[in-house]
Amino acid sequence: MEREEAIRVYLLDSDLQQLNILQRCVQQKEDFCCVGAGIDGRTLLYRLKDGLEIDLLICDMMLRDMDAVELLERLDELALPQLPRILVMLGRANSAVQDHLLSLGADLCLSRPCSMDTMFRRAKMLCGAGGLGLKVRIRRMLRQLGLIPNDSGYRYLIEALEIMVATEEPRAIVKDVYAEVARKENVTPVGVESSIRRMLWKIKEQNSELYQEMEALCKGEMSNARLLRLLADRQRSEIEQLEEEGC
Description:
Arc Repressor Mutant, subunit A; globular; alpha/beta; 2 domains
């Protein structure tokens, strides 16, 4: 039975035992409601085409009929009015695979083994329930740093930070992060780098109290790459703290 205002989640896992565990876990979560589950991606695609609305898709990397990469490509072809948040479970950490999944539209990749509590807390944060969503948190932090959203670099910076927070493995700033933002925005990596560099210099010029706190944590010169990593680390730490508090 669907609960009012609960996050509507669809579960995909080729392992029936794991799928049953996920379903039982959802049933115990007041903030989530399972609106479908299966071992193949084709059924989900048909149901979405027929009008099924979901807020969150939790998907195993390998399904019975396709992998998560093909599923994401097929989801894009559906041209839905709004895509659900997508969390992909990987068999092991692989930065190249994570990069590709995120470039295709995945919002978060987690590596197994991963506790169910951690998975659903991250999913809850991803959907913005029980607190602020990641994008909203980043915007709030940028306001504290003195930035206002009147430049394309502001949008690129938010997307770059979302990518860095969402992946577990360290990312090469220019080669991976900027390149992925460029693919999403249909611009060049050089343009992304230039725009974000302008935003980071504005942060330094504002010299806000929050920036001074971060600068105190930095050993040596505060390079742009180091500032980006500190911003991402701050968001990641807030999420981890909320997880520990059970929010």
